[in-house]
Each structure stands twice: as C-alpha cells, then as structure tokens.
Amino acid sequence: MHTSNNSERLEKCDRIGRIPLCTDDDYDFQKVDILDEMYKKSYTIFNELRSKCQLCDVALVVENRKLSAHKVILAATIPYFRGMFTLDLMEANMKEIAIEDMNYETVDALLSFAYTGQLRISTSNVQSIMMGANFFQMLEVVQYCGTFLLTRLHPSNALSIREFCRMMCKHFSAISKDDDFKKLPLEDTVELLKNDNLYVDSEEQIFVAAMEWLRFEESRHENAEKLV
C-alpha cells in the first residue's frame, strides 16, 4: 500500500534529469523569502545607475547644477516627489525640476539617502538637512535630525535650536516617541509641552508624551504637576 502511494505520487511529478519536480498539492513546500536582500541589492544597482547617469529620466537642478535620478525611485522614497509625479502636476512630465531655497549639498545628501538609506548628519549640516527633509516630507530624516539636536542642545547652537524647536512643534508626534526626548531636562520639556504651536491630533498626545517623560526616571514623579 505504501509503495503504491509512492508510485502514484511519482506519476504526478515531472522530471528534470533524475530530480522529480512534484506538482502534488499534498507535498510540503518551502517558501523562499529573500525580500530584504533583493531590495538592498536592487537599490545598490539603482544607485550605481544613478552615479553613471544611466536610465535616468529626470534631473534636479540646484544652484545651477544637476543631479540625475529615476522618477520611480524618487516617488518610492520621497513623498514630495510621489505627489508630484502621481497627481498629474505639470512637473510630472518635465525632464528637469528646479529646487529652490536649498543648497546643492543638502539635496545631494537627501537624494543619496533616498537611494542608499544612509545619511551623514553633523553640527554643520543638520539644520539644512532638517529643513530640506521637512520640505520633501521625509519625516524619518526630520526625526533623525531632531534626535541629533536633542543630544546637542547648547546656547552656542542658538539658530539651530530655534529651527529645531519649530520642527519639533510641527513633528511632535514622531519626535516625542524617541528616547532622547525623554532625556530632555524639565525646563525644556515644560516649555515644549506648553507650546501653543504643537501639531497634534488631540490633547491626549501631549498628555501621553508627558507621562512617558515622567516614567523615564522615577525621580521625576514629583514634577507631574508642572507638566500636566
């Protein structure tokens, strides 16, 4: 009986050489999942194509210099361009798109991030990167810049801090979830949470952020009245 079943199953198999390729639905199967590896390899190739200006169908013009790119990659990684290319805007069919009020280095860095997922942030470029990322609606980058500044708050960075505070208010929901937000001193936290310019869906988001800050260190519980 066992032999007969095996024979019947083998009859349902095609053969390549001596290896049966079974089509029987009862047979076990193995799912191959190499999606992450494929994405990484694909974007590496896309970036190589970009660096060689191969298969590029658009150029970003910044300070009279051009950065070649692929519309499909821009649409997949930068929300600003996804809207531009999919909502039938005039720029959707343009070969060159002018980017105003941003320096070349900033756009180049953000474009490289779109292709590689890597970005070098420093005290000298964090403000321009943050503003550029905000313009392009790259909220993850805005959050990274916010985290970077949170750990480097100092009077000597007054301009950057002022810009950071504005961005912090606009992207409060995202940045307030970062652990570095919970490391802010009491005075800065109170000033931020009481800011009338916070972009939140409801007062509950501010309350939750305050509770997370208080729970971060047990000694902070005595400051609850100052926050809520």
TrEMBL record:
<dbReference type="InterPro" id="IPR011705">
    <property type="entry name" value="BACK"/>
</dbReference>
<keyword id="KW-0677">Repeat</keyword>
<dbReference type="Pfam" id="PF07707">
    <property type="entry name" value="BACK"/>
</dbReference>
<feature type="domain" description="BTB">
    <location>
        <begin position="56"/>
        <end position="123"/>
    </location>
</feature>
<dbReference type="InterPro" id="IPR000210">
    <property type="entry name" value="BTB/POZ_dom"/>
</dbReference>
<keyword id="KW-0880">Kelch repeat</keyword>
<protein>
    <recommendedName>
        <fullName>BTB domain-containing protein</fullName>
    </recommendedName>
</protein>
<dbReference type="InterPro" id="IPR011333">
    <property type="entry name" value="SKP1/BTB/POZ_sf"/>
</dbReference>
<dbReference type="Pfam" id="PF00651">
    <property type="entry name" value="BTB"/>
</dbReference>
